Amino acid sequence: MIAERGGDLTPEQAQAAIAAWLGRDVGPVSLRRLTGGCVYTVLEATFCAPESPVVFKVAALPGDDGLVAEHFTLSYLHRHGLLRVPRPLACDVSGAQLPVSYLAMERLPGVNMGQAAGALSAGQREQLEREMGEAVARLHLHTGRGFGLLAEGASFASWTDWFRRLLVEQFEENVGIGLLASAALAKVEQLIGKLPEILEEPPAPTLVHGDIWSANVMVDPNGGRLLSGFLDPAGVFADPEYELAYLELWRSVGPAFLRAYHAVHPRRPGYETRRQVYWLNTLLLHVWFFRQQQYVDGTERVLDGLSGAVGL
């Protein structure tokens, strides 16, 4: 199970951190905990300066590589103008300044899509999905030389090889926790051997966000555009279908998104089978992380679907 690494900041520590990267004291800082952090503590800091508010993501111990990777990914997306994400402001994992690791970033306006859902009309929801589809389609025009995590150099020549490594990791983690039946694990192992027959190499390694769901989409009902931006990008050079499958698994988007997206990137034949493979990887991760029956049941349903589609 992924360890929760969340740490905490006092207002005085946040004030010192802000002063360090702004180069001036900003006076008293008020902190408010934000929802959505599964691994880290997420805090909103407000203070009397034009830069207020900012968001801190905090790990309990120095040396947190995950925050360094997120800082790199946010910086890359910002520098290339690829996707509206929070502007990274500072990252310190040295422990020299504070006894924690932290990433400070811009506070995007609005609330997340899950919080906004009840307040959006049907027309606004369609507009939001259309804006999301256009934004993701633009991101997926950015290609690289290899597959894998942006922050790790994306050095794999084959998408299937990189994804196979990912699926093997999820399989091995789940073998040890005893939630999935042996028959289900046997099907996963069999599927791993069939990946070269099922997946196809995309035209080019495509940069995807990698973790778009309702908590990572910011909505600003008071802005001209409803879509304020995206949070927590994993930043992966992948087959773009990997992103679409993730969105569809959590039912984060509907027809308006898909129309806008496919106007730029037409659907490739065979996607309906390949998306089930990507669903399986995501569900295995959630079984391991959350240890909840709903993800076990979801994994078994997807395996049943794949059994008919590819002969497990």
How would you portray this structure in words?
It is a single chain. By secondary structure, this protein is α+β, with helices and mostly antiparallel strands. The chain has two domains: 11-106, Phosphorylase Kinase, domain 1 (2-Layer Sandwich), CATH 3.30.200; 111-310, Aminoglycoside 3'-phosphotransferase, Chain: A, domain 2, CATH 3.90.1200. 45% of the residues lie in helices and 14% in strands. The chain is built from ten helices and eleven strands. The strands form three sheets. The chain has a five-stranded antiparallel sheet, with helices on both faces. Strands 6-9-10 form a three-stranded antiparallel sheet. It is globular and about 65 Å long. It starts with 10 loop residues before the first helix and ends with a helix.
Précis, in short:
With 312 residues, this protein is of the alpha+beta class. It has helices at residues 11-22, 65-80, 113-116, 122-139, 159-175, 182-198, 241-249, 255-262, 271-290, 293-310, and strands at residues 30-33, 41-46, 54-59, 88-92, 101-106, 111-112, 148-149, 206-208, 217-219, 227-230, 236-238. It folds into two domains: 11-106, Phosphorylase Kinase, domain 1, CATH 3.30.200.20; 111-310, Alpha-Beta Complex (Aminoglycoside 3'-phosphotransferase, Chain: A, domain 2).
